[in-house]
Amino acid sequence: MSAAAVSQQVRALEERLGAALFERHAHAVRLTDQGRAYLPGIQQALLTLQSTTEGLFGPARAQPLYVQAVLLFAHGVLARGYADFTSAHPGIMLNLTTGNMPYDFTVGVSDLRIVHGDPTPFRGDSDRLLDEVLYPVAPPDVAEQIRTPSDLLGHALIEVNSHRAGWPMIFEALGQPAAVPRMIFTDTTLMAFGLARAGAGIALARAPVSDLAMSEAGLVPCLPDLSVEGREAYHLIYPDRAALRPSARAFRTWLMDMCERL
User: Fold this and answer.
1) Same domain? 216 vs 252
2) pLDDT class of 163 with cuts at 50, 70, 90
3) What span, in angstroms and rounded, lies between the C-alpha atoms of 249 and 241?
C-alpha cells in the first residue's frame, strides 16, 4: 500500500475510535499516549492470529487445544509437563492461559479448565486431579528459628485469601487458638512465596502443586512433622465428556496420568 493509502486507513480507524493514535509532524509521526496504550494489545492480537492461522492452515496443520488453569497448577504441573505433552502429540497446538478467581473461568474460550475448589458451579463433567497438603515454609534461616509450633507466632503469617484452607486449619490441628498477632494477606501462593522469600513472613505450601514454586523461592518446611490435609482439590472441567474433541481427550488422558504419578 502507498503511504497515502495507509494514512487514509489510519484516519478512518481514528474516526471510528474517536481518538487520535498519532501525532503528525512535518517529517515524522509519533504515537499518542492512547496509541502507545493500544499498541501492545494490537501486537498480541496479530501474533495470535498469525500463529493460529499457521497452525490450522499451514503445512503442519496442527489442531489447536485451549486449556485454562489456576495459576499455581499451571506453574507447578502444566509448565513442567508441557514439553512432554507436545513432543508426544506434535499434531496438537497447546494454548495455555491462567486465572485465579472463579470469575476468571467464566470468560474466554477454552476446551478444558482446571479449577481449584468446587467444580459444580461450572456444570458439565469433571475429574478430580489432585488434593493438597498444607505446611508452613520459610527461608532456611527463618525455618531454623521455628522449633515449636508456638514459635510461629513470633513471625508474620502470610495467608492466601482466595483459599478456604489456611492458617486457621494449621492452628486447629495444633490445638491452639486460631487468632494470631500478625497476618499478611495476598491472593496467590506464588505471591505468598515471594513475600516469604523477601523475609516478610511465613507462608503455607500447598503440596504437591506448590513444590516447584517452593523450590524456586528457596523455601523449606518450618516444622517437618507438621502438615494438614487441605479442604479443596483441583478439578478438570469440561461441558461433556462424550463430546470432547480428540485433542482434548488426549490431553485429559495425559494429565490424569501425570497427576496420578504426582
Assistant:
1) no
2) confident
3) 8
